[in-house]
Design a protein that fits this description.
The protein contains eleven helices and no strands. The chain is mostly helical.
């Protein structure tokens, strides 16, 4: 009897794991878009720190991401079980926060852009001197702020990933839901921050390859690739900064338009209309929702920033 019970238990476990694997695959496919935005945002968030501190910063943010998911997975299960109607309002609040942070970055960049009536060389020299004059305490504060900002952004994106995954397993039992969400949380975190670590260390890889000695074919190819990586690294980080900001508006705006059904319906209708165009209809249908979500996110972020600025002035 004991042997039969053990075999039955093992069979039940195998069935559960098989279901979890299948649901995890579906959830991973549905969250792939958010994963791309998560990658761009986090690579952009941890850029700008000293080279020797890049991996420690990525590791600190990854640990923060794991802590986020340790909070989000049980919270998602509790909310889904007792107050499922609260999921969408919470997601929309997170989406609005992303739009706010994205627009605040744009506003900050506009306020601090170099003056046109000053030579760019002078502006660059002043910026370099300012950076070099920072003491250790300032650099530590800057690094901590970077980490906090990245973890805050990760919290919102992780919440969306968990919510999407929860929708896939909504009809399953509690154990299957918990295991699936846990698998998605671990795989997404390891995957995202592994890629982020690779991206921020591209320049170091370039320097390593460029130092290869010898006149052999492989050494010459290595030096050539290393030089190209060194040249490309700053441009890649600038691109990631732009893509990361756009991703904030796309993800945040997408969450908001999904929650505001009227706006979401108009966006879907616009995608159907542009599909009728010859030759480029299919491409426009694919791009239109993302563009309109981003535009909605920019407007929402501007309104949120205006309200927060007004509140701060009233308090002052």
């Amino acid at each position: 009897m004991a042997g039969a019970s053990l075999l039955t238990l093992l069979d039940d476990i195998a069935t559960i794991l098989d279901d979890v694997a299948a649901m995890s695959k579906v959830a991973a496919r549905k969250t792939a878009g958010v994963l791309g935005d998560d990658l761009a945002l986090n690579a952009q968030q941890v850029s700008g720190v000293a080279s020797e501190r890049e991996l420690p910063v990525v590791w600190a943010v990854a640990l923060g991401s794991f802590r986020n998911k340790l909070i989000l997975v049980p919270a998602a299960l509790v909310i889904s079980a007792f107050i499922p109607w609260a999921i969408m309002p919470l997601l929309m609040f997170g989406g609005l926060f992303l739009c706010y942070e994205g627009f605040e970055k744009l506003h900050h960049s506009y306020q601090h852009k170099p003056s046109l009536d000053k030579p760019s060389q002078k502006s660059d020299a002043v910026e370099v001197e300012r950076k070099l004059s920072r003491d250790v305490a300032d650099l530590q504060t800057y690094e901590k702020e970077k980490i906090k900002g990245a973890i805050r952004t990760d919290f919102v994106l992780s919440a969306e990933i968990i919510a999407i995954s929860l929708g896939v397993v909504a009809e399953s039992d509690l154990m299957s839901q918990f295991l699936t969400l846990s698998v998605i949380a671990v795989v997404m975190t390891v995957g995202v921050y592994g890629l982020v670590a690779g991206i921020v260390k591209i320049d170091d890889l370039g320097f390593y390859l460029n130092k290869r000695q010898g006149e052999g074919f492989l050494n010459r190819v290595g030096r050539y690739i290393g030089l190209k990586l060194i040249i490309a690294a700053p441009y890649l980080m600038k691109i990631l900064t732009v893509v990361g900001t756009i991703a904030m508006f796309m993800v945040g705006g997408g969450i908001l338009t999904h929650g505001i059904h009227v706006v979401g319906a108009y966006i879907e209708h616009a995608a159907v209309l542009v599909e009728q165009l010859d030759y480029i209809g299919g491409l426009l249908k694919m791009l239109t929702p993302s563009i309109l979500n981003a535009l909605f996110g920019i407007v929402a972020g501007a309104i949120a920033l205006a309200i927060m600025s007004l509140i701060q002035k009233v308090r002052a």
